[in-house]
Design a protein that fits this description.
The complex is a heterodimer of chains A (469) and B (77). Chain A has 469 residues and is an all-alpha fold. Helices cover 65% and strands 2% of the residues of chain A. Chain A is built from 16 helices and three strands. The chains are: A mainly alpha (469), B mainly alpha (77).
Chain lengths: 469, 77
């Protein structure tokens, strides 16, 4: 902090990210409520704990290796260059602990590293961590009511602390190889969070299989709809709310963007390209509106799909919501929602995929389409302030969308879920699925209930010896 | 004397870097943390296997499963 303006900038940035993290926590609250609301009563506790334990497990693994991956992998590694040293982001770095920015103790760090990262590292880490929870939570909803908790948590760590972080390093880092060579642009993570998590979920759903009874003998799907519409409603509204924090966290709040003489402070996107909080607020709301309106019409007023359509609308416009006009955002969102709604039911019927909450459609297909559309809409715009890097173009964003959904999402999800299945570790036994995944809680409760009834009988016997059974 | 690099909050604060106790212990701490994380998964997996085996033993028969289905059937409650 060599002057007061720099100091103010760093402390403002520290506080800014801290606030976004608090907002983003609501996404996870929303996912928990939404999933439980979509689950049959016999599986409530299992569904809740499956999603709840994402919090600690992704947090520790993102601390141990996820954060380092983001800074170490922008070159691939070995796609356009080697691993990059990131001594501030390793689990044993002094900059992961309380640090006031003075001279470093560890030899790998420089005085510039400590001066810059001391106040930013933890809050920036936390903002990314909340994205990691979201990636895993997206997968969680799709696989409810039959996956083993242990299998889900292993897969959640892979998507939350490994694969999405790799894609962020490639396509959501100012110097990621996809940004440099493809001109990849995905400002609010249509691809880097949603397409990758949706693809990963689809990869798991194939070896996992459908819930018992989901399809009839002729292969027609049955609706195992939301069991508690109020929980679903509040859950999705909380996800919307947390999404505000998500959008804000995708920005860098204050940077001098002027090239050459003078100073011009602005917010930027993650690529350090200028945007404003004002613009992204307009676009966020207009894409939410476009998504909800289209979903209401296409689903004939179905509440579940109207709410989910709002989410899919935002996701579909997110890749370019740093630069779109609000009316463009609205129409893109509406278009994307119609497509993903149709695709969800087509895939369900054609391939017998049981995606319990439509996560693959709302996140995966919408994210994929959002990236592709941004490639056309922003064709020729700079992908980065660095003039050496490629400009945004349809082919680059299409290839990027395929990398997100297929290469880093679907293929790893399918591969690791298939291995778990081969060892009989992916799905609960059939008897447990029928009785309900809360079976251990049920057994314990039956025991407690029996003991309570016995105690009451004994009390009656003590008070009314002649009338007791 | 203190357990860390800080003994006073006076003087040139810009010279203070790592402020947590026992600076230099980061790598053993990291290893202990990773061991704790892996150990948790092993314990959880064993516990889950045990619970599922017990549940199948108790409910893996037609009578018990039909009872469970009836319990979920609103027409039979």
């Amino acid at each position: 902090m060599d002057n007061e303006l720099t100091a103010l900038g760093i402390l403002f940035t520290e506080f800014y990210y801290w606030v976004t993290v608090v907002f983003m926590f609501l996404i996870h609250v929303g996912f928990c409520m939404y999933e439980v609301g979509a689950t049959r009563q016999k599986n409530h506790m299992h569904t809740l704990m499956k999603n709840t334990m994402i919090i600690p497990l992704i947090t520790v693994t993102f601390y141990f290796f996820g954060w380092w991956i983001y800074f170490a992998f922008p070159n691939g590694p070995w796609i356009i260059g080697d691993l990059i040293a990131a001594p501030w982001a390793t689990a044993n770095s002094e900059l992961m602990g309380t640090h006031l920015g003075g001279p470093p103790v560890q030899g790998a760090l420089t005085a510039d590293d400590t001066a810059f990262w001391a106040h930013i590292n933890g809050v920036f880490w936390a903002a990314f961590l909340l994205f990691s929870w979201t990636a895993a939570s997206i997968v969680s909803g799709a696989v409810i009511e039959r996956i083993r908790s242990s299998a889900f948590w292993f897969l959640a760590i892979l998507i939350g602390s490994v694969f999405w972080v790799i894609d962020a390093s490639w396509g959501w880092h100012p110097d990621g190889w996809m940004v440099q060579k493809l001109g990849y642009h995905d400002a609010y993570a249509s691809g880097v969070i949603h397409a990758v998590a949706g693809g990963f979920a689809l990869g798991i759903l194939i070896p996992l299989g459908a819930r018992i009874g989901k399809f009839d003998k002729d292969g027609n799907p049955r609706n195992i709809g939301p069991r508690n519409p109020w929980l679903v409603t509040v859950g999705l509204f909380l996800i919307y709310t947390g999404f505000w924090g998500f959008y804000a966290a995708c920005n860098v709040p204050m940077i001098d963007i002027q090239d050459g003489e003078g100073i011009l402070f602005s917010a930027t996107n993650i690529y350090l390209g200028p945007t404003t909080l004002s613009a992204i607020t307009l676009n966020f709301l207009m894409s939410l509106a476009g998504g909800m309106m289209a979903a209401y019409l296409v689903s004939k007023g179905d509440a579940f799909w109207t709410y989910s359509g709002g989410l899919a609308g935002i996701i579909g416009a997110s890749a370019g919501n740093d630069l779109y006009h609000p009316i463009q955002s609205m129409f893109i969102a509406a278009f994307v929602v119609v497509i993903i709604y149709k695709m969800h039911f087509w895939v369900e019927r054609r391939f017998k995929i049981d995606d319990a909450v439509g996560a693959v459609a709302v996140h995966g297909y919408a994210g994929f389409l959002g990236v592709v559309i941004a490639g056309f809409m922003l064709w020729g715009y700079p992908a980065s302030p660095n003039p050496e890097y490629a400009t945004i173009n349809p082919l680059g964003n299409f290839i990027g969308a395929v990398i997100m959904f297929l290469v880093l999402g679907f293929i790893p999800g399918f591969f690791f879920a298939s291995i778990l299945k081969a060892f009989g570790m992916l799905r609960v036994p059939e008897a447990v699925e029928i009785v309900g995944l809360d079976v251990s809680e049920t057994i314990a409760q039956e025991f407690e209930d029996a003991a309570m009834l016995q105690a009451e009988r004994e009390a009656v016997m003590a008070s009314y010896p002649s009338g007791a059974k | 004397m203190s357990t860390g690099n800080v003994e006073s909050w006076t003087g040139n604060m810009a010279e203070i870097g790592a402020a947590y106790p026992f600076v230099g212990i980061e790598t053993p701490l990291m290893i202990a943390g990773v061991v704790f994380w892996v150990w948790w998964h092993i314990c959880q997996l064993r516990s889950e296997n045990r619970e599922l085996e017990e549940a199948v033993k108790k409910h893996g028969n037609a009578e018990s499963l039909n009872k469970a289905i009836d319990a979920s059937d609103p027409n039979k409650q």
